[in-house]
Amino acid sequence: MYDETTYRTTLPTYTPPPWIEPYVDPTTPRNVTALMGKTAFLNCRVINLGNKTVSWIRHRDSHILTVGTYTYTSDLRFQALHFSEIGDWTLQIKWVQKRDAGTYECQISTQPARSYFIHLNIV
C-alpha cells in the first residue's frame, strides 16, 4: 500500500558536490535607485549557498549591517530579508536618506569570501 508520508521521508535529498561553491546570480542588478524617504531593496540572489552565510556591508564606513538574518546595526531602518525558496537575500533600508547612497556589499562566507557589489542611488 502507498504511504505518502513514508515515501516523502525516504526520498534522497540532493546535496551538491562540495566543489561547487556558492555564487551570486550574475543577473542580480548592480545599480538600484530609490526615492528619498521611501524604502530601498538591495537584492542578492545566491545560488548553492549550502552551509555558508550571507552578510551585507556598507562600504562608506565598512560597517557590517547584517549576517544572515541578524542585524548588526542599531539603525532600525536596516533589515535583512531572506526568501529561501529563490535564494534571495535582500537588504531593506527604510526611509532612505541621501547619506545612504553608495556601495553595499553582499558577501558570502566562503574562503576567500565572495563579494557582489551593489550601488544605491537616492533621488
Secondary structure layout:
Elements: H1 4-10, E1 23-24, E2 31-34, E3 40-47, E4 54-58, E5 63-67, E6 70-71, E7 78-83, E8 88-93, E9 102-108, E10 114-122
Parallel strand pairs: 2-10
Antiparallel strand pairs: 1-3, 3-8, 4-5, 4-9, 5-6, 7-8, 9-10
Quickly list its features.
123 residues; mainly beta; globular
Description:
By secondary structure, the chain is mainly beta. The strands form 2 sheets. It has a 6-stranded mixed β-sheet, with no helix packed on it. Strands 1-3-8-7 form a 4-stranded antiparallel β-sheet, with no helix packed on it. It has 1 helix and 10 strands; from the N terminus they run αββββββββββ. It has one helix at 4-10; strands at 23-24, 31-34, 40-47, 54-58, 63-67, 70-71, 78-83, 88-93, 102-108, 114-122.
Assembly level:
single chain
Morphology call: globular
Ends distance: 63 Å
Number of helices: 1
Q: What proportion of the residues form beta strands (DSSP E)?
A: 35-45%
User: Structural class, judged by helices and strands?
Assistant: mainly beta
Q: SSE string, helix = H, strand = E? A: HEEEEEEEEEE
What is the alpha-carbon Rg in Å?
17 Å
| Unreliable segments of 5+ consecutive residues | 1-8
Query: Average pLDDT value?
Result: 88
Helix content: under 10%
Summarize it:
The chain has 123 residues and is mainly β. Helix content is 6%, strand content 44%. It has one helix at residues 4-10; strands at 23-24, 31-34, 40-47, 54-58, 63-67, 70-71, 78-83, 88-93, 102-108, 114-122.
